[in-house]
Amino acid sequence: MVDVWTIAGSLEPVPVLSRLDLLAEPVAAAVKALPDPERLAVAEIDPTLADTAEFCAHYGSPLDASANCVVVAGKRGGELRYAACMVMATMRADVNGVIRKRLDARKASFAPMDDAVSLTSMEYGGITPIGLPAGWPILLSPEVAAAPELVVGSGIRGSKILVPGDVLAKLPGAEIIEDMAR
Questions:
Q1: Do the Cβ atoms of 124 and 112 come closer than 8 Å?
Q2: What global pTM score does this model have?
Q3: Are 142 and 178 in contact (CB under 8 A)?
Q4: Which parts of the chain register pLDDT below 50?
Q5: What structural domains does the chain harbor?
Q6: Percentage of residues in the chain with pLDDT exceeding 90?
Q7: Strands (E), 89-165
Q8: Which of 52, 73, 88, 127 is the most buried (most CB within 10 A)?
Q9: Which InterPro entries match (predicted)?
Q10: How far apart are CA 95 and CA 52, in angstroms?
Q11: In what order do the strands lie in the sheet with 67-76?
C-alpha cells in the first residue's frame, strides 16, 4: 500500500517502520505494536508547514484527505476526562454537544495546549491518535473511519503519517461516533 498513496502530492512517503525516527516516541512504540504497520507510511515535512492548510497548500495533498486530532477535556464534578477526537480537516468537531455527552461531562472544551502536549508526549500541531495514553477514548467521525487514505499527525511537526481510516478505527479505545463532526 505504501507505493500507491494517491493523496501524497509532492511528499515522499516511505514505510513507517523504516523511519521510526520521524515519529514521537509513544507513536513509534504504538506503530511497532500494530498488527499491520506495513499499511502505514511516513513522510518528512518542513515543521513550519505542519498546520493543515499550509501543509496541504505547500505539498499538494488534498485538504479533504487530511484528518485532525484534537484533545478534548470534559469536566464533571471536578474530575477531568480526556479524549482524542479525529475529524476530517474540512469538518468541525461538535465538542459541546456529541463529544461532551459521550464523555458524560457537564462542560467540555479543547484541552489547553500545555496539557495536551504534556499528557500525550507529542508536539502541538502533530498530535495523532496513534500512541495516546492508555485508557483514552479515541473518538472517530465516520468519515475518518471510512477514508481509504488519510494524512494525520506523527507526534512531531516534522512529519506526517499516511494511513487508511480503518487502521485508526482498530486502535485500542477507538469508537466511531455518529454526528460528531459537522
A1: no
A2: 0.94
A3: yes
A4: 1-2
A5: 16-176 (3.90.960.10)
A6: 95
A7: 107-110, 138-140, 150-153, 159-163
A8: 127
A9: YbaK/aa-tRNA-synt-asso_dom_sf, YbaK/aa-tRNA-synth-assoc-dom
A10: 20
A11: 107-110, 67-76, 79-88, 138-140, 174-176
- Local structure of residue 17 (DSSP, 8 states): G
- Which pLDDT belongs to residue 4? 75
Q: Please report the beta strands in 16-149, taking only residues with DSSP state E, as ranges in sequence order.
A: 41-44, 67-76, 79-88, 107-110, 138-140
Length of the chain in residues, anyone?
182
What is residue 97's predicted lDDT score, i.e. its pLDDT?
93
pLDDT, residue 49, reads 95
Burial of 120 (C-beta count, 10 Å sphere; 0-12/13-18/19+): buried
CA-angle at 149, arms to 145 and 157, nearest 5°: 95
The distance between the two most distant Cα atoms of the chain, rounded to a whole number of Å, is: 50
Amino acid identity of residue 89, one-letter, is A
Residue with cell 514521537: 24
- Please tell me the distance from the alpha carbon of residue 24 to that of residue 113, in angstroms, as a whole number: 17
Are residues 65 and 150 in contact, defined by beta-carbon separation less than 8 angstroms? yes
DSSP state of 59: H
Count Cβ atoms below 10 Å from residue 138 Cβ, excluding itself: 22
